[in-house]
Design goal:
alpha/beta; 5-stranded parallel beta sheet; two-stranded antiparallel sheet; 8 helices; 9 strands; 18% strand; binds adenine
């Protein structure tokens, strides 16, 4: 899979060289490129923002650098079978879930455009729709200073679903949200720690009883912490 990220703060993404995604990049499973939006400016100050038409607080990201960035990154797909999926993180978008991550992990090419300030000139989203499928995606119902942190989270959630990125694919199956429930609790040695015991069923060797207990724990946790998940 190819992922391009456009940001005015590319160093936010240095963390993506670490751990499993770093290894996936090194091995070529994941072709991840982080680009500075200012590289597509042509003035001395490398300007990416301007005052909003109609007035109001803050600044708006100018369309020109975004247009050039999208042209360059999407044009390289002209020979590929699939148009890119162009994602703009936004608190005004659809909410990102594990289902979104699963869907996006099947795409050949994702382009993430990180907005800052009061947002990006609306015409950029319209233009991007000529080049690929546009998705506005929110990390949740709160406001961040820009899209970078949201894109970090999305790239990690998507990247670990690409075959070969997580060494043991079984660990992807038995985790929160994969089956619509929260994950069951985990324990390791020692069996007693500071007077707290591991639930005896986990030491019983009875695989049927363990599976049953884990399922009950999943349901109980989900009921208590996230009843909204059970409504669906
Ligand atoms: N940019 C600012 N807030 C955001 C959010 N909640 N999700 C995605 N992008 C954002």
């Amino acid at each position: 899979m190819r992922i391009d990220v456009v940001s005015i703060f590319p160093s936010y993404f240095d963390g993506l060289t670490l751990s499993l995604l770093g290894k996936a990049r090194d091995s070529g499973i994941l072709n991840l490129d982080v680009r500075d939006l200012r590289d597509w400016t042509h003035d001395r100050h490398r300007t990416v923002d301007d005052t909003p038409y109609g007035g109001g607080a803050g600044m708006v990201m100018k369309p020109e650098p975004w247009g050039l960035a999208l042209d360059e990154l999407a044009a390289s797909d002209s020979r590929a079978s699939e148009r890119p999926t162009i994602i703009f993180p936004s608190p005004a978008g659809e909410v990102f879930t594990q289902a979104t991550a699963r869907d996006l992990a099947t795409r050949e090419h994702l382009i993430f455009g990180c907005g800052r300030y009061e947002g990006i000139d609306e015409r950029v989203f319209e233009y991007a729709a000529d080049l690929g499928e546009v998705r506005l995606i929110s990390l949740g119902d709160y406001v961040l200073n820009g899209g970078e942190v949201a894109v970090m989270a999305m790239v990690e959630a998507i990247g670990r679903l690409i075959p070969g990125v997580v060494g043991n694919p079984e660990s992807l199956v038995e985790e929160s949200h994969e089956d619509g429930l929260l994950e069951y609790p985990s324990y390791t040695k020692p069996s007693v720690w500071r007077d707290r015991e591991v639930p005896p069923v986990l030491l019983s060797g009875n695989h049927g009883a363990i599976a049953h207990w884990r399922r009950e724990q999943q349901l109980e946790r989900t009921r208590r912490r996230r009843p909204d998940l059970l409504e669906d």
